[in-house]
Sequence to fold (133 residues):
Amino acid sequence: MSALDEMVTLARRAMSNAHAPYSRFAVGVCLRAESGRLYAGCNVENAAYPQGQCAETSAIGAMVTAGDRRIVEVVVLGGGEALCTPCGGCRQRLVEFAGPETPIHMGGADGIRRTMTLGELTPLFFSPQNLGR
Ligand code: THU
Fold:
């Protein structure tokens, strides 16, 4: 199994564990860190709606908790006919740990449908460089 196939498998598994009783829209993500380790996450909604969190947020939290800091590849799988693209907030969260060339593979339970770089998805993003870091 290729590394990307493994990422799709983990994202699909995470998607099946999503807690999305309000939107009924499950999302699963898998991040590959520079270390080669893979981190999955799903969306976790809440009865107090704004307290819900996106799948990317869950996966980034798992990655940072484990000690990794650089994302080199991302898979985002979501339900529905339309392509599940990362929301604006999650693009910004990805920017913190990824670069403009980082590939973002997007699709559904059927697999990857489209790949774009983070820079294409989020032109002129605000990054730690803007702060001079
Ligand atoms: N969602 C994600 O998990 N990631 C995204 O990038 C897009 C949206 C979730 C949030 C919410 O639980 C559900 O999808 C519907 O918006």
